[in-house]
Amino acid sequence: MTSSTPYLDALQRDGFVVIPSLLTPAEVEHFRAVATEATTLARSGHWPHFRTVPKQFPPWPKTPPPASEGGIWGVQHLLHPQMPGRAEFARFYFSEKVLAVAEELLGVKGSGSGSGADTGTSAPPNENDATEPLVMELFNLLVAPETKDFELRWHRDDIPETVSPEEEMRLLQAKSPHGRQSHAQYNLALCPDSSLIVVPGSHRRVRTETERSARPYEPELPGQLVVELRPGDAVFYDSNILHRGMYKAKPQGGEETRLTLHGSIGLKVSASGDDADEKVRATAVLQHGVGSWVHQEDAAFGIGERAEKMRANLIALGTGEGVGYSLQG
């Protein structure tokens, strides 16, 4: 029999699922132009929120390094009210194409939460729904560094590599009990992208002795897989799968060679139902600074009630002051 939740089945089994052609070629061309503009602003110092080489995790510096030192490898806060192109980024983030996948992966598919018609519309709420199950979280852009390659070390997003095997298993089970996650995280490629490297199945087990003793930038782990994305393809993945990134430098002054939309959508009630786990998720989201602007009046999207309900769910997590950081480096 054909499964009614093929994406969720693949995510639970492998820790990731590739969805081909989530965007049409015309949509890819459109969003590539919008993303290129955002990248140009950040590279030139006219957008203050970015990820800088060689830093791996927040907090991020306030000044972009020169291109000779690698420059930036990401543009933060695409949904910020002052981001040029914000309306277009919001149309994608709150689109039915994205939310329908998130609903399946988070176990709310068919819950009556509503869905939109295409990438240009937000998903309208069902009048019978008292609450919105999804939470607006993060939406950023991953780009190629300039003049020099850049690598991320092997990691799980919110489980420190220093924990014991027993604590590692406890955390893995708490964050996705019975295979259910508290958020859906994805990369959508606007250019050919082979930056993400994963160890399939590692989201359900502690690291092997080989993995625990491996160097942070070990070039090859047993069973690793390079996720190959064509423009318009997306990969949704368990953020606690063992993974790393390898980013090839773009030619200085040339066209952008990597433009990858990097987002996450949360579940209002955590998968475990544990307050401590909800606080961990709040830290993972708010450590990026989204809580400092999402509550502003001009941060409203004006594209439908569901987008506003998801924003309200994020506001309820707090401002992010004093939450700390999930990983160091």
TrEMBL record:
Which N-terminal residues, if any, form the signal peptide? none
InterPro entries this protein is in?
Phytyl_CoA_dOase-like (IPR008775)
The source's domain of life comes to Eukaryota
Chain positions covered by the region annotation Disordered = 109-128
Q: Name one Pfam family in it.
A: PhyH
**Record's protein name:** Phytanoyl-CoA dioxygenase family protein
Q: Which organism is it from?
A: Aspergillus turcosus
